[in-house]
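cron nightly-structures :: item 1 of 1
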Amino acid sequence: IIFSPHEVNFIQGLVFYIERAYRTPDYGMFERGTKYNNNECELNASSIGMAKAALESMNGFNLYGDDGCSWSVVYVDIDAHNRNRTTLETLLPRESSSKNTSVSLLATIGFPAFAVHDSGIVNKTINKCLRRLKGNYGFKRFLRDGANHILEDKAKQFYEASEVKNFEGVENEYPIFYCFMLINSVFSNNLEDAKKYYESIFRLLKNTSKGTVLPYYYYVPSEAIEFERSNPGSQEKLPSPEIGKNSSHLWTQAVWFISQLLADKVLLIQELDPIRRYLQPSERPRQSKRYSTFKGFYSDLTVHICCIAESVRLQQMLANYGIQSQTPHQIEPIEIWPPSELVKVYKHLGLNTKLKLT
């Protein structure tokens, strides 16, 4: 809900901020940094993908709606968007330098971001997640993940060197990512997979005094850790502690509700994704974006080059070598401006002295 130009400038500033996601290390979706949890950031494909999807969705959007004008439109730099795209596609199917893969990629290449539409990259990324992370009770977040683990020292914020080795093969499994797979199966019209994940979720539900809930995660009890480590998938896992406290993990319940609404056809994919991000860019509905700086779809481009001579004398010299050109006077009313003038214009985007935004 935007009421003032100050808020417009603030949103534009946020766009400038996330445009640099391709070169900004962060702690990732799970806020652990590298998989070693040693307070170090790294470039994460899932973060870059989310930023790319946000830029595509925001580009040309008028924050004042139909009554807005040019200064209430959000502008996105096409070069920054392209850098995010190329960096993302280079990283995939890896999540980062330390993580061979991560389940956070499911939310990047599928619902809600739909940041990648190259079927080869998408299939390779999903298959890697399934091969490395899928279990009987959900998905591991990433290999050697120690979050919420019974072997994790809760008194320490960060791990010692090589401490993640303790969690290898006995990581917690999170059912919420079954829900993401169910949602993505519905979007891709893969009814067989949708049915499989629907049934997998159903058997993981738990009844409490407040109703049926989906546990946050399932863990290996301490007495079964060595058996699980020697024979992966052989031991029964227990639901996370909040179930015994008649509580629930809200994010898990929210995604579960959405997945069930889609599977039961109470909710349509067009209602869940009104801007049709699940479609190829060229297939999405074309909206009238008067002030949009670049198109939201790809097409085959033909580059045209026109030679402009600074003077008639230079034009004559080029003509001696068979090079056709025009002078600025001949192309009027079109004006040619140097790149420095464009830089001056862009300096005013998001500028707000009251909020000290530059």
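cron nightly-structures :: done
Residues 220 and 237 are 5 Å apart (CA to CA).
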